[in-house]
Amino acid sequence: MSKLSYCYISLLLLILPVTKLHGQVSNMIEIEKLSINSGQFNEIAAVPVNGGIVFCSDRRVSGVVNNVSFDGDRIFNIFYAERKDSMKWGQPVIFSKDLQTLFNQGPFCFSPDGRQIYYTSDVERGDDAFERDFKNRRGILIAEKTADGWSEPRAFEYNDSSWNTGHPCISFDGSYLFFSSDRPGGYGGSDLYMCRWEDDKWTEPENLGPEINSTGSELYPCFTAAGELYFASDRDGGMGGLDIYSSRMIGRGWTKPVLLAEPINSAADDFSLVKRHNASEGFFASKRDRTDDIYMYKSSIRRMSECNDLVYDSFCWEFEDENSTKADSVTFVYEWDFDDGTVLKTTDARAEHCFSQPGIYLVKLNAIDTITGDVRPNEATYLLEVKRTEQAFITAPDTCYTGETISIDGSRTYLPDWDIDSYYWNFDDGTAAQGVRNEKTYLLDGSYDVQLIISSSPDAEGNIRETCVTRTIVVKRR
Length: 478
What we know:
Blueprint (H helix, E strand, L loop, with lengths): L28 E5 L9 E7 L2 E6 L19 E6 L10 E2 L13 E3 L5 E7 L15 E7 L9 E2 L9 E6 L5 E6 L9 E8 L2 E2 L3 E2 L10 E6 L4 E6 L9 E8 L2 E2 L3 E2 L10 E6 L5 E9 L1 E9 L8 E2 L6 E5 L11 E6 L5 E4 L3 E5 L4 E11 L5 E12 L12 E3 L3 E5 L10 E7 L5 E3 L2 E5 L4 E11 L9 E11 L2
Parallel strand pairs: 23-36, 30-36
Antiparallel strand pairs: 1-22, 2-3, 3-4, 4-5, 6-7, 7-8, 8-9, 10-11, 11-12, 12-13, 12-14, 15-16, 16-17, 17-18, 17-19, 20-21, 21-22, 24-27, 25-26, 25-28, 28-29, 31-34, 32-33, 32-35, 35-36
């Protein structure tokens, strides 16, 4: 089975960098093999659709039909399985008989409105395709949704019988079409390409360049609304076979791809990872157990839906005494004693002062007659309590660079009546950590909303209090 016969669909997924960092957990993920897998055949590229999943498989389509090509490869079809509950799935059935042929169906993707399906199949579908010695190529076909099914497919304008084109992925807004191809002029076995939707048509394909493509094969492009590209590659430096990488679009270029961590990647082929929208679970395919199977993953990384904004305490105050001695014929100097070792003289009864720390201060105002030298002590007094904001607090730089190790610290948290049990960090890049202080290295540039979640020890009735705060760190590309 050639690599271009795998199945794909694009959705969001979780970045889990493989780089091991002090205090940072990168693989807080549990995986489970789905019950829809046949065990004997291959199941790949599951995606949530209409209360279930759509996926590709080369299983039998009936008890007596066992489709294979002339070279012995099994024929892939597109299936649908209903989700019964969080653990159970219904019996898989053909997704659409309109799309079922004697040729491979998939990988595939849907247009943003669901009215079109782009899928990989054989370029030649006439009589020549059934000749034993005929060498067919893969291309992209496009079918339209009809009232009762799908239309006859039309060929993608950049198919060619001299090379393979497949693994389509349409961006969330319909602006870009990504695909994989071994056409001439690439960097390796197969490269990733992109077309732009302009003037009601797709532009000429653009190679994504050497930052994305390698001397190996790049497959399964997945482009998210956040401008992130996920793909599979058998390049050097992976864990083995096909591995999943991530990159980010910057202008018309891309960041250096990052290898995703275990247990998503393994020593076997791993590909087509999909995240359920706005959830901490998703699916991916792997050959780690004899055949290609679909796995569900669940992330144990916590992220609260609402957090407080960070409040920066300045401890600065403005003082003014309107009742101080005023006389046109007498000139006074006002002496402010702020009870923290600071004494300030002013020409009117107004002053500004910043205290270095919280506390209770007895602020005194003395009036001095500059002619006689008489001092009127305690012209005014103020008993002032300077308080800190009760909150979780994050100390971190506002900006840093990719690959730079920074310190992220929660020790300035001020929750005076809490018995704090745990400090939990969500770094907004698919990694998390615990403890008051951590060192962090971001591998991709972007804006990250770091969360610090603080939990108390249980009280006498077993109740636990929690609060969280968010701080944004902008990571720049070196």
